[in-house]
Design brief:
With 194 residues, this protein is α+β, with helices and mostly antiparallel strands. The chain has a single domain, classed as Aminopeptidase (3-Layer(aba) Sandwich), CATH 3.40.630. It has a seven-stranded mixed beta sheet with strand order 4-5-6-7-8-3-9, with helices on both faces. A two-stranded antiparallel sheet has the order 1-2. The mean pLDDT is 95.
């Protein structure tokens, strides 16, 4: 398991852990360009708004954290391996028990259809990973996360490394220096996630 104090210190300094499936080692990442989702300008897609109106999914917080992280760790069709190791799972499950790591879950009846997990520290939410088993389930969970963060007064939604899916959700790339300024402001806030 990763040392909790070391892990939280790393987040405060702009780093996050990733396991390299090719060698099984844990690395601390600090990208030159950071993906963040501007909370004030986020807008759900037309399709997500339609799904929300239909109420296809019930969104819950923290009812099956381990189910979410294990679903995120499952290899995807396009990738045979995952960066979420058993060491990372055990660490984040412990962080969840400590009230630091949280899950946002889209349920379709009794099925965990999609969701995401991350860490809430001060006024920053560090999004780690998301998954879906049904169309738009993860995007609905993401939309509800943004609404929750806005309501609570969060300043930063860190999406870590840009990819096409995050860009579609409204993420933008910012420089490391700009990220650290935003992170510093966010960490000075005292907010309870739930």
């Amino acid at each position: 398991m990763i040392d909790i104090g070391e892990l939280l210190r790393a987040y405060r300094e702009g780093y996050f852990p990733m396991n390299d499936p090719s060698d099984g080692l844990l690395y601390w990442c600090c990208p030159h360009e950071r993906a963040v989702v501007p909370l004030e300008s986020y807008t759900p897609s037309r399709d997500v708004r339609r799904i929300l109106r239909r109420r296809d999914y019930q969104v819950r917080f923290d009812t099956d954290f381990e189910g979410v992280i294990r679903s995120c760790a499952a290899p995807r069709r396009s990738e045979a391996q995952t960066w979420i190791s058993e060491e990372i799972i055990a660490t984040y499950v412990k962080l969840h028990r400590l009230g630091i790591a949280h899950s946002v879950e889209s349920w379709y009846g009794d099925e965990l259809a999609g969701g995401l997990y991350g860490l809430a520290v001060g006024g920053a939410f560090f999004g780690e990973s998301m998954f879906y088993r049904r169309s738009y389930a993860s995007q609905v969970a993401f939309d509800r996360l943004v609404a929750h963060l806005r309501k609570k007064g969060y300043l930063l939604l860190d999406a870590q490394i840009m990819n096409p899916h995050l860009k579609k959700l409204g993420a933008v790339g910012i420089s490391h220096d700009t990220y650290m300024q935003q992170l510093d402001r966010a960490l000075h806030k005292k907010i309870r996630f739930l």
